[in-house]
Design a protein that fits this description.
The structure is a single chain. A ten-stranded mixed sheet has the order 3-2-1-4-5-10-9-6-7-8, with helices on both faces. Helix 3 (114-121) crosses helix 4. It has helices spanning 52-65, 85-100, 114-121, 145-156, 186-195, 219-249, 271-280, 324-338; strands at residues 41-45, 69-73, 104-106, 126-130, 161-164, 174-178, 201-207, 262-268, 284-291, 313-318. It is built from eight helices and ten strands. With 339 residues, the protein is α/β, with parallel strands linked by helices. Helix 2 (85-100) links the parallel strand 2 (69-73) and strand 3. The relative contact order is 0.17.
Length: 339
């Protein structure tokens, strides 16, 4: 009897502490006295119709994070009909200051290339791409900011990239955080915690699994396979619960209220297919996920591209890459476990 079961190991580790920094290099919570304020939040916008709501979203997050907001105009190769775009950007900055009681700054020069956008993003705690497509531009060939800038920003900057696709829909939409039960994905929880204020949070993990290639009438093989699936599911749920425990109980300063509605979901199968199917049947407001760019494997795409249209907005957090030796060791351990 042979059984095909390819999976990744689910390690156990101490739970993430909500009092720890969101990003050890660029972002820190302000609930400790004497901690320097975080870098401003950068919002790149094309000033197309429909981007005003996206800028209000960015302003609300900046206020929650306790930082300033910086606006920059990303020039569009297509004519946008604005006689003075910089004056229009200043006008939107004044509206954001009045409505959100927030310090809003405006970059003095337009952003014309991806290199200029990366240069601004390196001085920000988070980069927001406010380019919500409107009904007037839905049928055109105009490329969105995410299509042009997401990959360069994730490769060159260490700050997360927040892509806002559309305004908030009616009702309370949940926050879905796609993560592995691994200590490297702990920063995703910190950002999801901030974005899930007054909203339910769901932690989602996919266990890559190949079904047995044996005869489906082999009851013994399917019984063993089902038992191993149940054990892996329980282990993954237990680890996700450990990660979510501080979110339910720990108290923090204003804007860091504990979350009581935290659910965990563990899926089986192909990672991309299962994630798309899960998000398509769920009501997703904000999607939080990580991206690891490996210099020794530069052809890897950004998984968020295929999932963005399934949520109102998507936050992509750069993750530290394991060394090539560690990746080979992990792959070898997976082959031995599948043997």
């Amino acid at each position: 009897m042979s059984l095909t079961l390819r999976h990744t190991h689910v390690p156990s580790h101490p739970p993430w502490l909500p009092g720890a920094p969101i990003d050890a290099h660029r972002f820190q919570c302000r609930h400790h006295e004497g901690v320097a304020p975080p870098a401003p939040l950068l919002a790149l916008t094309t000033l197309r119709p429909g981007t005003g709501d996206a800028l209000h979203k960015a302003a609300r997050l900046a206020r929650t994070l306790g930082t300033d907001l910086r606006l920059a105009w990303r020039t569009d190769e297509h004519p946008n009909g604005l006689s003075d775009p910089m004056a229009r950007l200043q006008q939107r900055a004044r509206v954001l200051r009045r409505r959100h009681a927030l310090a809003v700054h405006v970059a003095g020069t337009p952003v014309r290339t991806a290199a200029e956008a990366v240069r601004l993003a390196r001085t920000a705690s988070l980069t927001c791409l406010a380019d919500a497509p409107s009904a007037a531009t839905a049928g055109t060939s105009r490329a969105t900011l995410a299509e042009r800038l997401l990959t360069p920003l994730l490769r060159a900057a260490s700050a997360p990239v927040w892509v806002i696709h559309r305004a908030e829909a009616d009702g309370v939409r949940s926050v879905h955080c796609l993560l592995r039960p691994d200590a490297l994905d702990a920063p995703l929880l910190a950002w999801a915690w901030r974005l899930a204020a007054q909203r339910p949070l769901r932690l989602v993990h996919v266990l890559p699994t190949a079904l047995p290639a044996d005869d489906p009438r082999d009851i013994v093989a399917w019984t063993v396979f089902d038992h191993m699936q149940r054990q892996r599911r329980l282990q993954a749920h237990h680890t996700l619960d450990q990660l979510a425990a501080p979110l339910r109980t720990a108290a923090c300063a204003k804007g860091c209220a504990p979350l009581h509605d935290v659910q965990t979901t563990v899926l089986f199968g192909d990672v991309d297919d299962e994630l798309q199917a899960h998000l398509a049947r769920s009501t997703v407001g904000t999607l939080v996920m990580g991206h690891t760019w490996r210099r020794w494997w530069p052809w890897g795409g950004v998984r968020a591209r295929a999932l963005m249209h399934l949520a109102d907005d998507t936050l992509v957090v750069p993750q530290p890459a394991r060394s090539l030796r560690a990746a080979l060791r992990r792959a070898w351990a997976g082959l031995l476990a599948a043997a």
